[in-house]
Amino acid sequence: MKQLFAAMQFLTRLPVPARWTADLPLSSYARGVMWLPVVGLMVGALCALTFTLAQRLFGTPVAAFLTVMANGMVTGAFHLDGLADTCDGIFSARKREQMLEIMRDSRIGTNGALALIFSVGLRTVALTALDGHPLGALPFIITAPIISRALITILMYHQRYARENGLGNVYIGKISGESFALTLLIGILLTLLIAGLTGGLAALVVAVLSFAYRGKINRTLGGQTGDTLGCGVELFEWLFLLAALGVMA
Q: How confident is the model over 176-211, as pLDDT tens digits?
C-alpha cells in the first residue's frame, strides 16, 4: 500500500500524510507502477462527482468545463505542465539539446499556451458531445484518467531517459515487463468494466496511437522525460474521449 500512497503523492494533490511513505526510497517507486490506473480511478471518480453536481446546477457545457478544471486541480496541473513544456520544446524547431533546455524553462511559450488552450477546449467539447450519447459522459469521465495512466507505461518500459537526471528517471527504463503487462491489464479491465466495449475499443485506438507518440518523442529528443510522460497523460485522455465519440458515431 505504501507504493499506492507514493503514487498518490507523486501524481495528485490528494492529501496523503508524508509519514505514510517516509521510509519508501524513490528507487522503489517503479515497482508500484501498477497502482497508476488506480490513481486514475480516484481522479476520474472525483471528476465524475464534479460533473454530476455541476450538471444539475449549470447544465452540461458548464459542467464539462468545470470537470476539466477539477481534473487539473486534483492533479495540481502536473500533467498539463508537462504538455506545455513538451510542446514548447518539440515545436521550437531547435536542436535536441536546446529543446531539452526549453522544456526545463519554467516560463511558458506560445506553443505551450496554445497546447493548454486546445487541450482544455477539446476535452470540454468532447465531454459535452459524449453526454448526448446513450452511455452518457460519466463512464468516460471516469475511465479517461484510468487508461491514460495505464498507457504511459508504454513510454516507460524499455525506454531511454533523455536527460542525465530528473523526476521522470524514477520510472523511465525502470519498470519490469511484469509490471508493464499488469498495469496495462488493470487499466483495460477497469475500462471495460466501467465503459464497456465502447471504452475498450477506444482504449485500443489510443494504445496504437501511443506507440506513434513514443516514436515521435524518441526521434526528436532521443528518449523520454518527465515532461513527455505528463504530455502523454493529457494527450491520451483527450484522444480516448475522441475515440469513444468515433466508436459511437
A: 999 999 999 999 999 999 999 999 999 999 999 999
Q: How far is CA 142 from the centre of its chain?
A: 13
Summarize the confidence of residues 225-233 as an average pLDDT.
96
How many C-alpha atoms does 44 have within 13 Å on its Cβ side?
A: 27
Q: Which residues contact 2 (CB under 8 A, 6 or more apart)?
A: 20, 21, 24, 32
Query: Please, are residues 116 and 238 in contact by the beta-carbon 8 Å criterion?
Result: no
And the C-alpha cell for 132? 448526448
- Within 10 Å of residue 113's Cβ, how many Cβ atoms? 13
CA-CA distance, 191 to 50, in Å (whole number)? 20
Whose CA is closest to 241, among 133, 82, 95, 93? 133
The whole model's pTM is what?
0.95
Q: How confident is the model at residue 165 (pLDDT cuts 50, 70, 90)?
A: confident
What's the rounded Cα separation, in Å, for the pair 40 and 225?
A: 20
Q: What is the mean pLDDT of residues 70-88?
A: 96
pLDDT for res 158: 95
User: Which residues are registered as beta bridge partners of 224?
Assistant: 161
